[in-house]
TrEMBL record:
SUPFAM superfamilies: Metallo-hydrolase/oxidoreductase. GO terms for molecular function: hydrolase activity. It comes from the Bacteria. This is MBL fold metallo-hydrolase. It comes from Streptomyces spiralis.
Length: 262
């Protein structure tokens, strides 16, 4: 039996503990307020449940992208600089430098486990909006965590494409755990479509992936999210997937035991 523990910090930020390793998703620790991005701004409505000092050291950061302040903010950049390794997109590596290491889609890196073996981290494609919006929103990545006798975990990043979820499921699935960035984010930059999964799409993604457990992230704490936790609860209930959903309060953790990893 292998146990995965996920602690929700707030927004897209969570600690994933698996096989003796600690991984942090998209570091965001700034206070509420307005944050400029080009000629626009994004409004943060709540701060994190824990500060960087409360989290402590991690083995790696999984950074879906660096170009938006709701996924990497000023305090998150300071934390990132202290991490031994951050895995992200080629454009993030070009902008940020060390400790960021670029992974192209489907490229894999191995993180040594305490004792023996390795955790495989595979970059998987993500689309931060509708097809054709790539030049506006920039490069984004998701991740698959896997290894011998380990649960398989999908971390979506800011992906809005179910077609990509299907491709990931075909190539890497099925999955034990899906960490899905949801919230149906909308901004004037791409006014006609959400930039992240809607609640109904998150439930459909869980079905496509075959995920036994689903932990949503990035569905609250910013004004541009249009669907909150209650929308996720409703969508998973309507899809008959309520038992798979772990909707965490900020600062809360869930421990998921996988008896027979897929």
């Amino acid at each position: 039996m292998t146990t995965v523990e996920i602690t929700y910090i707030g927004g897209p930020t969570a600690v994933i503990e698996l096989a003796g390793l600690r991984l942090l998703t998209d570091p965001t620790f700034d206070a509420p307020g307005a944050y400029p991005i080009g000629s626009r701004e994004l409004t943060k409505t709540a701060g994190p449940a824990r500060r960087p000092a409360d989290i402590g050291p991690v083995d790696a950061v999984l950074l879906s992208h660096d170009q938006h302040p709701d996924n990497l903010d000023t305090s998150g950049r300071a934390y990132l600089a202290t991490a031994p390794l951050a895995l992200s997109t080629p454009s993030a590596e070009a902008r940020l430098g060390a400790p960021v290491r670029a992974l192209a889609p489907w490229e894999r890196v191995e993180l040594p486990l305490p004792g023996d073996g390795a955790l495989h981290v595979t970059a998987v494609p993500a689309l931060h909006g509708p097809v054709g919006s790539e030049a506006l929103v920039g490069e984004v990545t998701g991740f698959v965590l896997s290894g011998d006798d380990l649960p398989k975990v999908y971390v979506s990043g800011d992906n809005a494409s179910l077609d990509l979820v299907r491709e990931i499921a075909r190539r890497e699935g099925p999955f034990d755990i899906a960490v899905l960035f949801a919230g149906a984010a909308r901004t004037p930059l791409v006014p006609d479509a959400p930039l992240t999964l809607t609640s109904a799409q998150a439930a459909e993604a869980a079905r496509i992936l075959g995920a036994r457990h689903v932990v949503p992230l990035h569905f609250e704490h910013w004004a541009h999210f249009t669907e909150d936790g209650s929308a996720l609860t409703k969508a998973f209930a309507e899809a008959g997937l309520t038992e798979r959903l772990h909707l965490l309060a900020p600062g809360a953790s869930v421990r998921m035991s996988v008896v027979d990893p897929l």
